[in-house]
Write a structure and sequence with these properties.
The chain has 322 residues and is an alpha/beta fold. The chain has helices at residues 37-43, 86-89, 131-134, 137-149, 165-175, 188-196, 224-231, 253-257, 270-279, 297-305, and strands spanning 2-7, 10-15, 27-35, 51-52, 56-63, 73-76, 79-80, 100-102, 106-107, 114-115, 122-124, 157-161, 180-184, 200-202, 212-217, 232-240, 261-264, 288-293, 311-315. Strands 3, 5, 6, 10, 11, 18 and 19 form a 7-stranded mixed sheet that branches. A 6-stranded parallel sheet has the order 14-13-12-15-16-17, with helices on both faces. A 3-stranded antiparallel sheet has the order 2-1-4, with no helix packed on it. Helix 4 (137-149) packs across helix 5. The structure holds zinc ion (2 copies). One zinc ion (ZN) binds at residues 81-82, 84-85, 87-88, 96, 98.
């Protein structure tokens, strides 16, 4: 079966044997998968990963330990935890020190015709949620994680920095709290998409320093944190969402002087993302730039890496050979 493999820093579409599920795992026939900035960073060396890329997944269970679940359409969480350690016992399985992460660390991902996540990672999708939209469950869950970590009140002034795929999703999720939200970016086309979704937008230069209660940094760039610290008010909160290959230089003095809370934020609750996408509270359609068959995965990656690109989806439905 076909899979997009990263090997010693090189991406190539390969023919591989169908993966064999381990204990507790399901064999998923992938329907569609989303290319995310993390994938682009991994291809550049972030996480030192080799194997099949991809972690934003929608597919159908073809085989699994419990036959009642066969045939279900699912999305899959990305962290594979041990289930026995202290973090897992505390309900923090996403922080299990033994974890592997699908398509990111130690576990093959979903840019392939088949993938084998554990059953416990799978969430059944409602019929009204299309395959295309279901590819956004994982990133939308990451957007909802901000609300799991930070109390956002309707009187709060909130800025989301970054008008990329994740920033646009986070803006839609935070907008649903009724807070005074501003999406900050510098791509005219993306800011226009946000305005069409009813979101207030601004360019960074037009904003007063120290004027926001909460600033979410989703620029994907090491310069984003500095900009976020400039915008947040004393005693405010900065949420860091970007992952990138490389380190940033940080002047910590403003954090101390203004007593700023910095919150790192990663994966989030699928239980909140699935109904939000199914009901249209989060509307990702305008974020889809291209849908590319798996056989052209390498060009899909090039497309996704172009400056200003939004979401590229890989479509495995066309070439399934059974
Ligand atoms: Zn992702
Ligand atoms: Zn564990």
């Amino acid at each position: 079966v076909k899979a997009l493999v990263l090997d010693s820093g090189r991406l190539a579409l390969r023919d591989q044997p169908t993966p064999v599920p381990g204990p507790g795992e399901a064999l998923i026939r992938v329907a569609m998968a989303g290319v995310c900035n993390t994938d682009l960073e991994i291809a550049r060396g972030y996480m030192n990963f080799s194997g099949v890329l991809g972690h934003e997944l929608c597919g159908v269970i073809e085989a699994c330990p419990d036959p009642r679940f066969a045939g279900r359409r699912v999305a899959g969480e990305i962290n594979l935890s041990c289930g026995r350690c202290e973090q897992c016992a505390r309900g923090l399985a996403r922080h299990c020190p033994q974890r592997t992460v699908m398509g990111i660390a130690g576990k093959d991902g979903c840019f392939a015709e088949y993938v084998t996540p554990p059953m416990t990672n799978l969430h059944t999708l409602p019929e009204e949620l299309s395959d295309e939209r279901a590819c956004f469950v994982e990133p939308a869950a990451a957007a909802f994680e901000v609300l799991e970590q930070v109390m956002v009140l309707s009187r709060d002034r909130v800025a989301v920095l970054g008008d990329g795929k994740l920033g646009l999703l986070i803006a839609q999720v935070l907008e649903s709290t009724g807070c005074a939200l501003t999406l900050v970016g510098n791509h005219a086309r993306k800011l226009e998409l946000a305005r069409q979704a009813g979101i207030t937008t601004a360019e960074i230069g037009s904003l007063a320093r120290k004027s926001f209660d909460v600033v979410v940094e989703a620029t994907g760039s090491p310069t984003g944190l500095h900009a976020a610290v400039e915008l947040v008010r004393p005693r405010g909160t900065v949420v860091l969402k970007s992952t990138y290959h490389g380190k940033l230089e940080l002047d910590a003095a403003p954090l101390v002087i203004d007593e700023i809370t910095v919150v790192g934020s990663r994966c989030g609750p699928f239980e909140r993302a699935i109904p939000a996408l199914a009901s249209g509270l989060v509307r990702p359609d305008a974020l889809i730039d291209a849908i590319v068959p798996l056989v052209r995965a390498e060009s899909a990656f090039e497309r996704a890496a172009q400056p200003g690109a939004l979401k590229v989806l890989l479509d495995m439905r066309a070439e399934s050979v059974g």
